[in-house]
Amino acid sequence: MSQLPACQTLLLELHNSVLHITLNRPDSRNAMNLQMVAELRSVFAAVADDREVRALVLSGSGGHFCAGGDIKDMANARAHGAAAYRELNRAFGALLEEAQQVSQVLITVLQGAVLGGGFGLACVSDIAMADHQAQFGLPETSLGLLPAQIVPFVVQRIGLTEARRLALTAARFDGTQARRLGLVHFVEHDPQALAERLDEVLQHVLCCAPQANAATKKLLLASAGQPSAALLDEAAQWFSDAVTGAEGSEGTMAFVQKRKPRWAI
Questions:
Q1: Residue 173 belongs to a domain
Q2: How many other CB atoms are there within 10 angstroms of residue 131's CB atom?
Q3: What is the pTM of this model?
Q4: What is the pLDDT averaged over residues 185-213?
């Protein structure tokens, strides 16, 4: 069995060959800071070749999955210039690539806020289940930013047509609509039903041979084509340009000041 890393932003519990990973920054609705990104990547690396870990269940504490990226990280990056924004953004893209490729079955349990980066994590899961009142969305353009590392995975998950609508309107939608879009596979109406659905799905997963599942997942992803590292590198540069530009400065400042940005009617 793999030695799991010590984590401050995650809760880890291994039970019956299933590693439960809980995003644990409830005061910020589990917004992802650089530390959480690094810790998630270290957990995925630790279990990468461990066939005793059959499935990973990713959820959030405090009634929310993940409200996206932590704005405070962007404020800290401001002092270090455009390159810091690019590296900050690209680190999250690397997390999505690694989550997509992890050999275990990756299951997301989605409640409350599933925004921005949280939306991206849902898109790279093998199986996603949501509370019917979960709130999904790509709010980046409403902040003058780009969902730079997320969009390729969203397009792969739900198709270009719906991705265009969601990314270009920053529209919010609930778990029932997420099911219609093909973003999630199951929608439940209370926490007990969500827990029972997770147990049912895990029973099916654990009926499958771990090596066969790992190889099949690799084949499935290869068959569908992958968002390329070169595209994500370029997208990180676009994100840096946006966040250091006039719109990004105004949008992030408006967010912090809890007001509408100048362009919002």
A1: yes
A2: 23
A3: 0.89
A4: 95
